[in-house]
Amino acid sequence: MTGKEYRTITDVKGPLVFLNKTEPVAFGEIVSLRLSNGTIKNGQVLDTSDDMVIVQVFEGTAKIDREAGVTFMGDVFKLPVSEDLIGRILDGAGRPRDGGPDIVAEQYDDIIGAAINPYSRRSPHDFIQTGISAIDCCTSLVRGQKLPIFSASGLPHNDIALQIARQAKLTGSDEEFIVVFCAMGITAEEYNFFRADLERTGALEHAVLFVNLADDPAVERIITPRLALTAAEYLAFEKDKHVLVIYTDMTNYCDALRQIGAAREEVPGRRGYPGYMYTDLAMLYERAGLVKGKKGSITQFPILTMPGDDITHPIPDLSGYITEGQIVISRELHQQGIYPPINVLPSLSRLMGSCIGEKTTREDHKSVSDQMYAAYAQGRELRGLVAIVGEDALNERDKQLLEFSGVFEDKFLRQSRDEDRSIEETLDLCWTLMSAIDTKYLVRLDQKWIDKYHPDNRK
Amino acid sequence: MKNEGLIYRISGPVVTAIDMKAAMYDVVRVGTEGLMGEVIELHGDKAVIQVYEDTSGIRPGEIVVNTGETLSVSLGPGLLTQIYDGIQRPLPTLEKEMGVFLTRGVDADAFDLEKIWTFEPQVSVGDTVVGGQVVGHVQETDTIVHKIMAVPGMGGVVKSIESGDFNVTQTICTFEDGSDMQMMQKWPVRTPRPYQQKYPPVIPLVTGTRILDFLFPLAKGGAAGIPGPFGSGKTVTQQSLAKYSDAQLVVYIGCGERGNEMTEVLDEFPHLIDPNTGKPLMERTVMIANTSNMPVAAREASVYTGITIAEYYRDMGYDVALMADSTSRWAEAMREISSRLEEMPGEEGYPAYLSTRIAEFYERAGRVETLNGEDGSITVIGAVSPPGGDISEPVSQGTLRIVKVFWGLDAGLARQRHFPAINWLNSYSLYPQSLDQWFRDKIAQDFPEVRVELSGLLQIESELQEIVQLVGSDSLPADQQLTLEVARMIREYFLQQNAFHEVDAYCDIDLQYKMAKAILSFQEAAKNAMASGAQLNDVVNVPSRSDLMRGRLNKGYIDIIDDMVKTMCEEIAATVEEN
Ligand SMILES: Nc1ncnc2c1ncn2[C@@H]1O[C@H](COP(=O)(O)OP(=O)(O)OP(=O)(O)O)[C@@H](O)[C@H]1O
Ligand SMILES: [Mg+2]
């Protein structure tokens, strides 16, 4: 149903258009605006009443005047989905960007997405091996988890995300992940980097890309991740695929949200972001997981850059409150020339406990991970102390731990961009590195694992 | 005006209706799909409604029907083991009706109305029954007898009373004045259920978590706030309390948090055994799950739905514990609705009535004499999620003004993997005075003194640490170095407790006391030995001390701890001779 065209715009403010005297318009309805020069823009109803309708325009309101014609499309925003999506590149509003044909829809799915009934979820427990030691050992990823990368500008989060996308696999299974990639306001250069890498490795054939770049309309970013997640849900829960959703950069998404809030003159929350940003982000992040009766899964890797490297900034803060842990990228490690510069100390995988151990990774995994973490944490802390009291003031144990913290960064964290370590290799590496510390200081290692895995006992 | 009106405006979860007779908090049906909503503001001829389901696609001009009822919960046998959304719709029923995704417009009974329960009358014909009085019993689960009570404000002289098998809608009692009652009753969620009087809290809620029971005890009928930044352990702590605390019933509200966390509880609870009764935990639990991505208006309601259910079981004379994770998400739901109403905001955009609502909620906690003359209690434990972990914000402050127990989670401790990451220096409980008699009578005469001694040692440690930071620990005198060792033992052996460890996750209160005493015995033995010339290093490193400390991870520790302490003290004494 396409209704009649109205020319009743009263106000235009920021990304919003206000109009009056229309037929009843639905909340959330899709709107088409025809400008006097013939350009078509799209929008969505944010507020509707008998007297006034507020429309949020995705492409920005440039050139919109009171003469523009407004048509209400009779339905909420839906994405045409089918398996043809795989291998395609679409723009931030879901239109082909690769010169290919329109998607032939098997069905049209509402992009807002309904919440998964908590009773209908299945607990995630399949370990995903990323081949990156820091992640596999210390913040193990689980299929169906939402684990963001907290980064900052100028850090190699994209490389890490791509490396994960390339290498992620279930141990003992050759099931492939379908990558759904969602770009929000990133630069053309960054995008080309992603695309070239996906092309190089052939992953593009198993990927769907939704792309909104820095010079694309900012407000469109509000819908881009919703399109990506709608595609992901279709592929996971209708077509039994295991989907890895990478979206970057959440910071640009939140800024678009702030822009709309400001235009609506809403009471701003912290740092000017809307008070409902937690709920809004949850509507994205919670679209991860596994559900009863369906084989597929959605694993999410949102990437965000922390403004001012500040983890208490509302964007990382609210994200951390919703996601199941976080991987924190460190500027300090990056400056030391370490790739991947993952700071394991503030990083956390809350679902780790459910996916590691004898049946999935290895019996000593938990013990090793705890010990690596503790030794590194203590070593790092000693660096501060040494700066004050000097290395000579340290006792034997502290000297070994201090030394270990350097080795941890150099040998354990550091690996090349195409180095794909198996979990066995990672854990063996941990044992080799820890053997530089006297066993009596390795209090978190169970004796039975020391007997079995310590290099001294393995020879 | 009539009971029907038309939609005038839709803005997210807030819908305005015109031409409809409405009173505050009336429940209405919105739009052709009949979405459930509640009147929250009246404005001339307009009624402002918060809608409990997604409003996309609804249009002005659609119908709104006022049911004339207020937002209520259904109360009766069948509540236990259920999992509800924020407005008491059972999630399993919604799954049956909608599939795995929550769509909208489905109504569902709170529990099975057809199920037959065996009703045993407790009153006879001719008795006078007053509101809140128990008229009969139903065995709801293996452990819980569900007491059927006259609705507060109702009652009369019993004309007839049934006995035997009935469903919850069948009449089981009639009164001389012509009124009657069924096993199911309704109660408006925003109205606290009445009781006779509030008692002072004198019995602790024993949680099995050492730092809580020993240092910062919570009373049955008390209220506690757990603020902490993300990932610091609010949910793990709340879940531990739900599992192990000695409440008879637990209402667990997942309010605006993760879906997977509720799944985890659902997977785990049916297989876990309540250490206090030996029965599956699920049998004493009611769950409410309105996750972060479910409608915010229903999130706002979820807290009230939960506490009303808790009050109902309290009125039967039970000790109920209610966990709300997280109250910040509830406050944010209020903020979101308030901003749609274009209300004048208070601090940080929250409505000006935020602190009143928080206070009213926690006031529904308490140990009371019920209308039936029994003792019942509700203990409320609310998680708070302050932005950036900074508790100077309105929800934390509003909570701290009213609760008497503050369990402050600390990002630094969590990062050190010291769990539970409760900061022992800034947390507090105002209950010890009123609970000490119980601890003296039930656990040990010197229990309060032992507590004071432990917290004193931790206090001294933090002062010594400042010096150590500057000069290193080696330059401290031996007695102070010993104090640091003792404090470390308190932290690593006593305060740290892994919530996922099969044995250590729950620690019996008697064992807690023995462990605390073991630390003091160590201190005593070490002091004596060192006074006779023993070296700190030798004293600290006696093997039996690490045996003692590790022993807590094994079953049956309580039976051998006394012997282990004895051995340790002997070994420490022996270090004197070595010199
Ligand atoms: N008592 C504990 N024992 C062992 N591990 C714990 C304990 N408390 C917390 N943890 C660890 O910390 C992680 C985070 O805890 P939790 O999920 O309770 O945080 P939270 O405060 O609820 O965070 P959020 O506000 O984001 O929900 C857990 O996944 C677990 O690894
Ligand atoms: Mg939590």
Describe the structure.
The complex is a heterodimer of chains A (459) and B (579). With 459 residues, chain A is an alpha/beta fold. Chain A is 32% helix and 25% strand. In chain A, strands 9-18-17-19-21-15-22-23 form an eight-stranded mixed beta sheet, with helices on both faces. In chain A, strands 1-7-4-5-6-3-2 form a seven-stranded antiparallel beta sheet, with no helix packed on it. In chain A, α9 packs across α10 and α10 packs antiparallel against α11. The longest helix of chain A is centred in the C-terminal third of the chain and has 25 residues. Chain B is α+β, with helices and mostly antiparallel strands. Chain B has four domains: 67 residues, Beta Barrel (Elongation Factor Tu (Ef-tu), domain 3); 70 residues, OB fold (Dihydrolipoamide Acetyltransferase, E2P), CATH 2.40.50; 233 residues, Rossmann fold (3-Layer(aba) Sandwich), CATH 3.40.50; 132 residues, Bovine Mitochondrial F1-atpase, Atp Synthase Beta Chain, Chain D, domain 3 (Bovine Mitochondrial F1-ATPase, ATP Synthase Beta Chain, Chain D, domain3), CATH 1.10.1140. In chain B, strands 8, 19, 20, 21, 22, 23, 24, 25, 26 and 27 form a ten-stranded mixed beta sheet that branches. A six-stranded antiparallel beta barrel of chain B has the order 1-2-5-4-3-6. A four-stranded antiparallel beta sheet of chain B has the order 13-12-10-15, with no helix packed on it. Chains A and B meet through β5, β11, β12, α6 and α7 of A and β1, α1, β9, α4 and α6 of B. β5 of chain A pairs antiparallel with β1 of chain B. Bound molecules: adenosine-5'-triphosphate and magnesium ion. Magnesium ion binds next to α3 of chain B.
SSE inventory with pairings:
The complex is a heterodimer of chains A (459) and B (579).
Chain A: E1 5-6, E2 9-13, E3 16-20, E4 29-34, E5 40-49, E6 52-57, E7 69-76, E8 78-81, E9 89-91, E10 107-110, E11 115-116, E12 121-122, E13 127-129, H1 133-138, E14 141-142, E15 149-151, H2 157-167, E16 169-170, E17 177-186, H3 188-200, E18 207-213, H4 224-238, E19 242-248, H5 250-263, H6 277-285, E20 290-291, E21 297-305, H7 314-322, E22 325-329, H8 331-335, E23 342-349, H9 365-389, H10 396-413, H11 423-434, H12 447-453, H13 455-458
Parallel strand pairs in A: 9-18, 15-21, 15-22, 17-18, 17-19, 19-21
Antiparallel strand pairs in A: 1-7, 2-3, 3-6, 4-5, 4-7, 5-6, 8-10, 12-20, 13-14, 13-16, 22-23
Chain B: E1 4-11, E2 14-18, E3 26-30, E4 35-43, E5 46-51, E6 63-70, E7 72-75, E8 83-84, H1 91-98, E9 101-102, E10 117-121, E11 128-129, E12 134-139, E13 145-149, E14 156-161, E15 164-166, E16 171-175, E17 180-182, E18 185-188, E19 197-199, H2 210-215, E20 223-227, H3 234-244, E21 249-255, H4 259-268, E22 285-290, H5 296-314, E23 319-325, H6 327-340, H7 354-363, E24 366-369, E25 375-384, H8 394-400, E26 405-406, H9 411-415, E27 428-429, H10 432-442, H11 447-471, H12 478-495, H13 509-531, H14 536-540, H15 543-551, H16 557-578
The structure holds adenosine-5'-triphosphate and magnesium ion (MG).
Adenosine-5'-triphosphate (ATP) is lined by residues 228, 230-236, 257, 385, 414, 419-420, 498-500 of chain B.
